[in-house]
From TrEMBL:
Record key words, sorted: Membrane, Transmembrane, Transmembrane helix
GO biological process: lipid biosynthetic process
Domain of life: Bacteria
A family per Pfam: FA_hydroxylase
GO molecular function: iron ion binding; oxidoreductase activity
Location relative to the cell: Membrane
Sequence intervals crossing the membrane: 15-35, 47-70, 90-111
Protein name: Fatty acid hydroxylase
UniProt main location, coarse: membrane
């Protein structure tokens, strides 16, 4: 059996500095071009989000990337996976594999909202009371671990080669930072980008305390899957959005130790602490 050559260090050497630059740039730009008003200390939230992300980042680098590379190399060696079975030419295999990688990540995101075990972990991400580029790192370790098995399995089933997988991962991480940012884009640029990418306005709606909005805009890179499945939502004014989860409004409940324990806490009703269910009045729609 040929020795498997993990190429993920290349990802860190080449892609990581670029991604770090993107994050720093967005962090500074969103202070100048601000999309939504911030209600809590950005410095404190950034420190909290970074601390929560630290363990997940270790898992991604130590386990997820190697698992993805292994799955891609294995499927390529064995000619296993959908893009191989269809007998497509090389360019079509690459295009189809990229699209399917993005679609399976859409599906994974939907599962983290609808499967109770996954939602227990995913709510750590949504519990942030404001939203900026650091929110894109706020994922619980448990969610990262489960994603290893799902994403590795999907890569093998698709038949995506490891080089494409790593290329897609760089795009995935860059887009995650971008659409979680609190960056206000010019209206014309926003409208144009929204046709081909998930934008900060679209993903801000996804972080709303209104349940219907929370269950919309699941896409990571491309918006087509939300259109296809009827989960696209764009007609919400940004100033009308309250970020976070309705049942978790107290910052003192959202410390780093509590966030690590959150998956083991009870599932609270979708309501504010006073029992009110957040709703969107029709008159508030339209932007």
């Amino acid at each position: 059996m040929p020795k498997l050559r993990f190429s993920f260090p290349w990802f860190d050497r080449k892609a990581f500095p670029v991604l770090a630059g993107v994050v720093v740039g967005l962090y500074l730009l969103e202070e100048v071009l601000t999309l939504r008003e911030q209600h809590h200390s950005k410095v404190r939230r950034s420190l909290t989000n970074t601390a929560v992300a630290a363990t997940g980042f270790t898992v991604v680098r130590a386990a997820l990337l190697p698992a993805m590379v292994y799955a891609g190399d294995w499927s390529e060696r064995h000619r296993f996976g959908l893009v191989h079975w269809l007998g497509l030419p090389a360019w079509a295999r690459t295009t189809a594999a990229f699209l399917l990688l993005d679609y399976t990540n859409y599906c994974w995101h939907v599962l983290t909202h609808r499967v109770p075990l996954l939602y227990r972990m995913h709510r750590v991400h949504h519990s942030d009371l404001d939203m900026d580029v650091t929110t894109g790192f706020r994922f619980h370790l448990g969610e990262q671990v489960f994603s290893i098995f799902f994403r590795g399995g999907m890569i093998a089933l698709i038949g995506a080669p490891s080089r494409l997988v790593l290329g897609y991962e760089a795009v995935f991480e860059g887009c995650t930072a971008f659409h979680h940012s609190n960056l206000r884009l010019p209206a014309a640029l926003e409208r144009g980008l929204a046709r081909i990418l998930i934008t900060p306005r679209a993903h801000g709606i996804h972080h709303s305390i209104v349940e219907q909005e929370f269950n919309s805009n699941f896409g990571v890179v491309l918006p087509f899957w939300d259109w296809l499945h009827g989960t696209r939502c764009l007609d919400i004014r940004q100033e009308e959005i309250t970020i976070g989860l309705p049942a978790w409004r107290d910052p003192e409940e959202l410390t780093v130790p509590r966030l690590h324990r959150m998956p083991f806490d009870e599932l609270r009703p979708w309501a504010l602490p006073d029992g009110t269910v957040p709703r969107r009045l029709p008159a508030a729609n339209g932007e």
